Amino acid sequence: MSVWEIKEEAPDAKEYHKSKGTLQFPIDQPLPYDLIRKIVQYRVASNLKKAESKSKNRRS
Question: Which SUPFAM superfamilies does its entry note (predicted)?
Fold first, then answer.
């Protein structure tokens, strides 16, 4: 997930430090489980869509 996708899908991620391919959470604060859940769900859906697309291309 790129930084741009994180901003689109999870605007509440703006308060955390981001760099290429990472999202860093402060060690002195509790983990934002709702945000992590959103990101994981987005990645799972994205990966499934990508795998389905590859599968269709192989069948052709």
Answer: YdhG-like (SSF159888)
- DSSP assignment letter at 17: E
Domain that holds residue 7: 3-59
CB neighbours of 2 closer than 8 A, spacing ≥ 6? 20, 21
Phi and psi for 16 in degrees, rounded to 5? -105, 150
Tally of structural domains, the chain: 1
> pTM for the full model?
0.68
pLDDT, averaged across the chain: 80
Backbone angles phi and psi of 8, in degrees to 5: -70, -50
CA 4 to chain centre: 10
